[in-house]
Amino acid sequence: MKLRLALAAATCLALPAIAHAQPVTGPYISIEGGTAIENPVNGTFTVPGGSLGGKFMYRPSYAGIGGIGYGFGDGFRVQIDGDYIHNTIDKFDFSGSQTKVVGHENKYGPMLNLLYDIPVGLPVFPYVGGGVGYQWVTSVAYNGSGYGNQIATSGTEGSFAFDAIAGVSFPVLAVPGLSLTAEYRFMMLTESYKYGFSVLGGIPSGTAGTGTLKFGQESDHIFTAGVRYALFQPAPPPPPMVSPPPPPVPPVVAKTYLVFFDWDKYNLTPRATQIIAEAASDSHTSATTTISVSGYTDTSGTPVYNQGLSLRRAKAVAAQLVTDGVPAGEIEIHAFGETHLLVPTGPGVREPQNRRVEIVLQ
Q1: Which residues, at least 6 apart from 192, have a Cβ–Cβ distance to it below 8 Å?
Q2: Mean pLDDT, to the nearest integer, of 38-44?
Q3: Which of 36, 49, 66, 112 is deepest in the core (most CB within 10 A)?
Q4: For residues 280 and 325, is the Cβ–Cβ distance under 8 A?
Q5: Is residue 77 a contact partner of residue 25, using CB atoms and an 8 Å limit?
Q6: Beta partners for 229?
Q7: Domains and CATH numbers, the chain
Q8: Which residues contact 283 (CB under 8 A, 6 or more apart)?
Q9: CA 207 to each of CA 44, 47, 99, 202: distance values in angstroms, whole numbers, following the listed order
């Protein structure tokens, strides 16, 4: 149960990072520090009496790197680094024998690197890259013990260099623009170089004097951790446009016209003709799809007779609508006889309000 809860919590914490983490855009600065491990370097001591060759062995030491760069927003970054690498000499190995050496060297210089942040859909960005530059190497006080040797040397030489980089960055969402970084860097100097030195006790024969110390190509493994900060955060995207809801469709209101008839008649009066013309005119100017024409009678007369009379009244009104320009296909004719009375009455009552035709525009 505890494991499942931990996995659920980790998922909840990771989702916001996945949603918000973005490649670097614009200028940024970075600073890193860590451990430098130099590979063994070929070295040769040369004095008037001879020479001695072997390998310098180093202890893990330290390094610092500061950089300024620019991210293009698509994962690619260009970065100028200034590094300082301190390497501590431990031993000099020659002909299978080792002698303790007390001394160190310092490397420093600029490197121009091209990097790429790899989008992997996680709350971290792996990145790779590499570049070229120039490194100066300062050698300080190599004092050898063993075989009576005492050596003192110092000086500064330079070499072109290249590096290869692999790392990972973790955006800190609580501080926009800030990322934690962990990085591995392999750096190699392309040239060999030499220093002058003083010999007390002599190499190899015990003759005191001066000579040269030549180093072969050097290479370092550098492991660092640090921070990176994007200087100018891009403006957040505008909120998505939300279209306003369409205006409500007004309800369709049927318009009704009443045409009244004399008792036992279905011919149109002048007033009836005027009302029918008005209905026909309104049907042309409104969104009318159907015109319902329904005939009615009062309760005088038999139901069968009234049914026929109501139909004749409806047909008379429909014919006048066609005359007034209404297409016949839009007209629906209904006959209801003495049913659906407008004014409720008993049987056999001549009620003028019930002798009608209703025109409904729909």
Answers
A1: 214, 215, 216, 217
A2: 90
A3: 36
A4: yes
A5: no
A6: 29, 178
A7: 22-230 (2.40.160.20), 255-361 (3.30.1330.60)
A8: 291, 326, 330, 361
A9: 17, 9, 19, 4
